Amino acid sequence: MASAVEMKGITKTFPGVVANDKIDFILKKGEVHGLLGENGAGKTVLMSILYGLYQADKGQIFVNGNKVEIDCPSTAIKLGIGMVHQNFMLVPSLTVAENIVLGQEPKKHHFWFDVNKAVSGVQALSDRYGLEVDPKAVVYSLPVGVQQRVEVLKALFRGAEILILDEPTSVLIPQEVEGLFSAIRALRQQGKSVIFISHKLKEVCAICDRITVLKRGKVVGTVDRNETNQDELAQMMVGREVFSAFEKEHPAPGKIVLQVEGLRAFNDRKLLALKDVAFGVHEFEILGIAGVEGNGQTELVEVLAGIRKLEAGKICLNGKPIAHLSAHERIEKGLSNVPEDRQKKGLILDFSVSENLILGRHDKPPFAKRWFRLKLEKISDFAEKLIREYSIKTPNRDTLVRNLSGGTQQRVVVAREFSGEPAFIIVSQPTRGLDVGATEYVRKKLLEMRDKGCAVLLISADLDEILALSDRIAVIYEGRIVAVRECSKTNELELGLLMTGGKNE
Amino acid sequence: MNEEVRMSQKVGQMFGKIGSKLMTLLQGAMPQLVAVFGAFLVGAIVLLATGHSPIEAYGAMLTGAFGDVFGIGQTFTQATPIIFTALAFLFAFKCGLFNIGAEGQLLFGGFTAALVGISFNGLPVFIHLPLALLAGAAGGALWGFIPAVLKAKLGAHEVITTMMFSYVALYLTSYMVNYPLKAPGWVPQTVFVAPSAELPSILPPTQLSASFILALIIAGITAYLLKRTTIGYEVRAIGLNPAAAESGGINIKRGVILALVISGAMAGLGGAGEVLGVHRRFIDGFSPGYGWDGLAVALIGGLNPLGAVLAAILFGTLRSGGMAMNRVTGVPLDIIFVLQALVVLFVAAPRLIRYLLKKGGFKW
């Protein structure tokens, strides 16, 4: 089979982060190719390069065997490449047909928009690929699954032979997923090539012919669907990485610090994301939460931090219930949180380093007097101290955090969250997107905190990280804790199996 | 001897520090300065095209605005309410809120101040005046509070609600001074406030009142609030990244309400200043659109309190100088609005300015 797309040695760096590192990728004609990896592994960046949204720093792209330069999406479209983004690019108040022909409208007398021709053209396209839509329906009134079909048709209308679907199932309810899959199969039958980006193993296994796994911007490997299984893919996706091993001592855990029982919470789409979650974290202990992303981890963190509504359940910190407290009061009680997305939730990018370092404690002594006046000198001294202690590489304390590299930004968050003598720390994806040096630094600091007596909840999609740092490991799958293991008594294989729902106790 | 050298060095260092601070300030204000300059340049072309001499016209404007005590008084009197409304817009904007209802907050604040001003007689000045000012601030704050609560509790967008509340304030106060509180005569206005509630004039015999001093104080307080207090810290955090602010334990709803209340209070105080300092009574619809001018002035001032004061004085200069220009040279008053619009246009086009500066060889 000839290749539809060949990408060779693609490298793309952003300040402080290598998003794609010498990636080779081949899409064969007429196949459905899964691009698998955790968030931040570099899937979307790679596909954005193919679609012309980004330009690679290094590397070559061949389409149908010809070397091409793709400098913008319209070039990609001319080459027969279409992309369906995670967030749809539709005009809600226009009809399906109008959306599909937008920019290439059929005309009457070279001037008037020919509505009838647009409708019949869209109807024909829809029939041909078995993608059922009503061309006259107004887009905002349609369910998400149908809107996605409109996006696919839009790409096909522009002559796409190669379709990139970016996390297409993340917006769908389960019933809609099956519809999408049959549409993809129909496209394959018509000879189209499809790239299916996802971090969900089950779906990739269900629909793809071949699968390429990315991790930290590198290709882990490309495998045939028939020659692999979910466990192997899980391991490729989250496992095996060379970091210097830490001295593994498990200090004796002390008294229980955080205890939760029967946690229930909804996600943003109002579906139950946490189903009776219960666990405890002790002093001198890191409890790792292992799981493929999207199994309730984000909701768990937000419920604990007090920024998502808890439907039912108990949360106790040092024996006292805190479920009724605000996020602010929980911080006062010694809860600390390193969020998964540092730029969106951890930092205020247009605040200076010192302003970011006091976030959460800005209204209390020594930084504020009577909850009103900021004591700038105290804040400066504090910032200088943390910049030294945590080796934050910044020109000075007044530099905007926006201008720092990814690794340095994470140091700011870690410095802030670890310096307040917290009793309990939540750490989510602490090393995502960081280079080796920054990763080791963050991991070392985390162990230091534990050795000081902190209770730590570590949430990571990276199984190596979980195994390297945790004292105990809880596996979360579809909103439930399906198993808890002593770190020394488990291994990747077992965890991988549990994470994919392969084995239930 | 040594002592002297060291002293002079110290003084030199101090001046150096002040100088470098001034330089950074000037550099930051470059786009605004260029915008003003560009507006006057284009204005000159318009003047030429309509058969007037720009030099004569601008000269008359400057002499009118600053040439004598009346001009100066008029200039700062015109600038005063706009300083208040610009600060009001700016403060809410720092919290990510678009308070376009400063007009209504100013009117309602002016009305409540007038109520207190006319209701009491025989109170000592040091009680009555602060009370009336406070009432003005409270009236404006209330007019900010209602949209804020609607936003925090129901998610109603503040652009719609603050604008609608401006109309409510306009017609409510209009009704009050047309019917229940109408002074004898045919003009819809209240009676004069008690002398004990009047803001004193600071440049007799002009209209310039202590309201101008108050405006400067409020500008200082705004800068202090934003930079030096937990309130300002939280307000800015919410404006820049609500998700991170929430993670950091900041109560977003409280912050939004607080920001709009403070914003409204500033505009309300501006209304009180007009009522107690200039008109000495509430006149139906006394604001020719101070609220809207405030929005433009806040943007021209680069969304910083000092800039807002300077930009408001520029507007005041155009207003008072414009009338003189019209008297002396016969240039129609409308050219003033052309100039105002041009300044706003230039400020709103930062990329154009940056391009012009680059072309001009400025280091950016």
Mean residue pLDDT of chain A: 89
Q: CATH homologous superfamily name of the largest domain in chain A?
A: P-loop containing nucleotide triphosphate hydrolases
Specify the number of helices of chain A: 17
CATH secondary-structure class of the largest domain in chain A? Alpha Beta
* Number of β-strand runs of chain A: 24
Largest interface, with Cβ-Cβ < 8 Å? A-B, 29 and 21 residues
3D architecture notes:
The complex is a heterodimer of chains A (505) and B (364). Chain A has three domains: 3-238, P-loop containing nucleotide triphosphate hydrolases (Rossmann fold, 3-Layer(aba) Sandwich), CATH 3.40.50.300; 242-334 and 422-505, P-loop containing nucleotide triphosphate hydrolases (Rossmann fold, 3-Layer(aba) Sandwich); 345-420, no CATH class. Chain A is of the alpha/beta class. In chain A, strand 13 (256-266) and strand 14 form a beta hairpin. A six-stranded mixed sheet of chain A has the order 6-9-10-3-11-12, with helices on both faces. In chain A, 32% of the residues lie in helices and 27% in strands. The mean pLDDT of chain A is 89. Chain B has 364 residues and is mainly α. Chain B has one domain: ABC transporter involved in vitamin B12 uptake, BtuC (Orthogonal Bundle). Chain B contains 15 helices and no strands. Chain A binds chain B through residues 305, 307, 326-331, 337, 339, 344-351, 355, 359-360, 362-363, 368, 371-374, 376, and chain B through 227-234, 236-237, 240-241, 243-251.
